[in-house]
């Protein structure tokens, strides 16, 4: 835990404050308070936010979040158990509807038609919970959350091979390499903590699949290879792009394979080649794009991904570069210290920026996940 007694840097205090003020009394963290389409809690954003709070001694906030996740999952027990009972004959739609990508802050479902079958967050919460318990020694919490853990593991055991939406809410017809990293990493982490050999075996199986199907030219690829020719993907705006072109490219979320999930070490040749390709195609002045074909708000540079690259650099001992990532993220905060999701200083496809602004409003700010990743990189730099 970092020393909260001594004066923190202003952006650290502001980030903690932004997160605290935007934690619902239920324990859920809203993705962004000022962006209507992000008025939900995603387990991906929420778990990294809780992890950031843990790193700065705000354990009560993190604890409240994990209790909320458990209550929310347990409240969907009958739907989940129906899907689980159907076993291997289960319909994809039944599994897809069992647990959604995002929840309202009181644990309800998003009833809009925004696709919602997305698994990565369920692996991520298992990882974050294990980290929280190890950091705080709160074994009682682990007991209390037994039901949520059990249901999640049963669900993921059935669902992990199915195509589902990426962490960016896209390409629901694909198996995403970074999603498998969240599942193998999260399941493995909790399995070791609670001593569950069958969950450990599941994590090993998912990791094996990832390393077999999620590698192209000796590095990780955005999509895992499925049998047959690559799918056709309708690009926003009309043209059809071959799925393989997108799928063979890198995605900055592939960094998750090393941090936090530790499925490949930072110097594994496959990871080194992945990071080289990320640096070559996605990094501009320490800001990081999501993937080469991104057009969301024109495809800007994401603060949280810059922090992720910095986290990887810490792990690889490249501390000067990690500090440059931190400085870049800090420079993107506005005069009040608020951090957006992305900035438009370098856009992949500028023509898409204005249409998105007209559709959904200005880029989300503050984004709690950006603040959280900033805090995580700060604490990693202090640790190294
Ligand atoms: C991103 C998700 C994120 C959500 C809320 C979406 O634009 O693709 O990764 O969970 O925003 O921050």
Put the structure in a nutshell.
By secondary structure, the protein is mostly helical. It is built from 16 helices and ten strands.
Written account of the structure:
The chain is mostly helical and 384 residues long. It is 52% helix and 6% strand. The chain contains 16 helices and 10 strands. Strands 1-2 form a two-stranded antiparallel ribbon. The chain has a two-stranded antiparallel sheet with strand order 3-4. It has a two-stranded antiparallel sheet with strand order 5-6. The longest helix is centred in the middle third of the chain and has 18 residues, at 177-194. It is globular, with a radius of gyration of 19 Å. The chain starts with 9 loop residues before the first helix and ends with a helix. Bound molecules: beta-D-glucopyranose. Beta-D-glucopyranose (BGC) binds next to helix 2.
């Amino acid at each position: 835990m970092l020393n909260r007694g001594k004066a923190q840097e202003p952006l650290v205090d502001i980030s903690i404050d932004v997160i605290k003020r935007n934690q619902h009394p239920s324990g859920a963290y809203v993705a962004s308070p000022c962006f209507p389409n992000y008025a939900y809690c995603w387990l991906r954003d929420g778990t990294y936010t809780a992890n950031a709070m843990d790193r700065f001694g705000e354990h009560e906030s993190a604890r409240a979040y994990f209790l909320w996740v458990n209550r929310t999952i347990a409240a969907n027990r009958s739907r989940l158990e129906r899907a689980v009972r159907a076993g291997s004959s289960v319909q994809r739609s039944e599994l897809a509807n069992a647990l959604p990508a995002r929840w309202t802050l009181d644990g309800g479902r998003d009833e809009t038609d925004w696709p919602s079958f997305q698994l990565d967050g369920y692996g991520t919460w298992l990882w974050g919970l294990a980290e929280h318990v190890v950091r705080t020694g709160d074994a009682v919490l682990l007991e209390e959350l037994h039901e949520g853990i059990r249901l999640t593991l049963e669900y993921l055991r059935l669902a992990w091979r199915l195509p589902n939406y990426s962490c960016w809410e896209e390409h629901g017809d694909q198996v995403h390499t970074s999603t498998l990293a969240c599942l193998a990493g999260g399941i493995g982490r909790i399995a070791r903590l609670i001593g569950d050999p069958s969950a450990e075996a599941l994590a090993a199986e998912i990791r094996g699949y990832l390393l077999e199907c999620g590698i192209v030219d000796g590095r990780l690829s955005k999509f895992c290879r499925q049998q047959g020719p690559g799918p056709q993907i309708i690009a926003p705006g009309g043209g059809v792009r071959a799925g393989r072109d997108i799928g063979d490219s890198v995605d900055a979320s592939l960094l998750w394979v090393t941090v936090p999930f530790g499925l490949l070490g930072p110097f594994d040749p496959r990871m080194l080649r992945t990071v080289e390709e990320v640096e070559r195609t996605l990094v501009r002045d320490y800001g990081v794009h999501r993937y080469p074909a991104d057009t969301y708000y024109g495809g800007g540079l994401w603060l949280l991904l810059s922090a992720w690259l910095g986290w990887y650099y810490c792990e690889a001992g490249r501390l000067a570069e990690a500090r440059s990532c931190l400085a870049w993220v800090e420079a993107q905060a506005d005069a009040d210290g608020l951090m957006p999701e992305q900035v438009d200083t370098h856009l992949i496809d500028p023509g898409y920026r204005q249409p998105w602004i007209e559709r959904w409003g200005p880029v989300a700010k503050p984004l709690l996940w950006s603040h959280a990743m900033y805090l995580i990189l700060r604490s990693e730099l202090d640790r190294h």
